[in-house]
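Ticket 4471: requesting a sanity check on a complex prediction with adenosine monophosphate. Repro inputs:
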Amino acid sequence: MKFSDLGLAPELVRAVQDERYETPTPIQTQGIPPALEGRDLIGSAQTGTGKTAVFVLPILHRLRTGHTSRLRALVLVPTRELAAQVAESVRTYGRHLPLKSAVVIGGVGLEPQRQRLRQGIDLLVATPGRLLDHLERGNVNFRSLEMVVLDEADRMLDMGFIQDVRKIFRALPAQRQTLLFSATMPEAIRQLAKEILREPVLVEVSRRSAPAEGIRQVVCPVGVSDKRHLLRHLLAEEKMLQALVFTRTKHGADKLSEFLGRNGHPVAAIHGNKSQSARTQALERFRQGRVGVLVATDVASRGLDVEGISHVVNFDVPRSPEDYVHRIGRTARAGRVGNALTLVSPEERPLIRAIEQLIGRRIPVREVTGYAVPRDSAQPLNPQGRSVGDKPWRQGGPATRFVKRGDRQRRRSW
Ligand code: AMP
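Returned structure tokens:
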């Protein structure tokens, strides 16, 4: 299957060729043709599958003819970063078309957005809260909308935006095409889908909640207080060129980035307490490779798409198993290979079990010499630097073939 077989306008096929995409990804092959026919769609897909193009290309295809400078398409996303990325895809795929788009997100001034909306745009990418704000102020109207996308619907739910989303949908024209994307399909999202979609086509790539193939996942047991030292060791040992490191809290992100910075690792951090410009700047420095480590919290990193992230490190195990899938989905994008390492303290082991249940497989354990904790201990075993690399968590557990420079990776025994 080629992009030119999907029924897309030549300007779009050309834009995709400019990007050197050779073939459409599975979700693109399945999703683009029905979207071009005007069907409603449920895309059960995580980021990294190429899902953005499944809505951006059909939107641009439709907008290229007919009225311009009337708001005809709306993409709702949960976070500012994702909004920026969708807007970037619109620019990329729309480079041979004369369409105007705008981004409306919280955390930045209302006035420039109001002015942009007034100028007349074809396509709007927005986060729900700020869009409602503009709607209530009469800065935007939805009368000419033809296509609406709800991206990362499950995140909208997690972040408490569902009521805002419902309000927005109540203000939309009944006659429209609606596309909904979600990595997972909790009951509340199924319900919402029933309310806002009409006879949708379901396109699903890979098993629900399954991380992309091509991600090498591993868990490293370690005591809480040794985590940051283990991370330093791994950053050097694993030659992590571009590592995205997740912490659970904003404070944790700050502390960790300070520690890494003090220890000679160029690092940037993004989290919800940082201003929009600080977040954008941090992301840009990471994108350009000026810093090799980006420390982030879940919310800040949602949908983040940086090419070439070689490693995702979970400094803290996420509380929700779905977040694990989202986090590690930042690496191995679009068929490449990536690594996901999770540092697990004894207290966090139950969280790993829940993750394994969700993804339907066990994650290999790698004990790093000098840092691992024994299976039944809540403390690191080696206060004096005694090597525990040779000591499996369960005696006699089958060693895997990934034995590496003194670090031992074992099939698990939680
Ligand atoms: P997404 O899942 O939409 O966030 O896309 C993940 C990444 O895959 C983005 O960096 C896209 O530029 C890239 N991508 C999307 N479609 C393709 C394709 N058909 N071939 C290669 N890369 C792609």
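Notes from triage: The pocket of adenosine monophosphate is lined by residues 21, 24-25, 28, 47-53, 305, 307, 333-334 (CB under 6 Å). Leaving this open until the requester confirms.
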